[in-house]
Amino acid sequence: MIATAFDFDGTLIDSMGMWRNLGRNFVESKGKEYTDAIHDQITTMSLKQSSAFFKRELELSESPEEIFNEMGAILLDGYSNNLPLKEGAMEAVERARRLGPVVLATATNQELLMPALHRFQLDDAFDFIQTCDGVGIEKSDAAFYYTLAERLSASPDEIILVDDAHYALAAAKEAGLYVVAVKDTYNLPYREAIVKESDVLLDSLWDFDPERYF
Description:
Layout: E1 3-6, H1 16-29, H2 36-42, H3 47-58, H4 64-82, H5 89-97, E2 102-106, H6 110-119, E3 129-131, H7 132-135, H8 142-152, E4 159-163, H9 166-175, E5 178-182, H10 191-197, E6 200-202
Parallel strand pairs: 1-2, 1-4, 2-3, 4-5, 5-6
């Protein structure tokens, strides 16, 4: 292995509760029903993608940009002021940095997550940040990880992905990455799929020891 890619939400920062409530609260505030089908479809989307989806599927009067801004303001406040890092996150990043390049691979828009990185003095911790909107590919698509490998000048099997989302783990595994899954309260319903798709399943980031894989 020569590089480590960390997911952000649910892996490094404890934000999945905010994200899970965001879509439901927004949809219901517009007098619409938040169905399981809606939830399943937006799970893998970035905020920009879900804003366009809500506009189209719910036939809202607001533009996608207005929807993005309304939901983005809630997220920005969380990242800027309230959301804590997951236990062991800082130490996991530091351990990985001692061994090679470290990047963020996330569905979250960079302008939203940067205040959190700044708050925890992680501005310079990552060689680069790859977002879904930045490359135009969802994390559920193996192409996202092929692009990551190209940017790292590495083959996919030389990269560790640390993530909590079952769909991301499956796509990364398909692309050939070494997949390290991290337990999170919100991925419990997908635990069976996560065990199947991951090379390693960690109870927390305190257990992340990249020297085992390099």
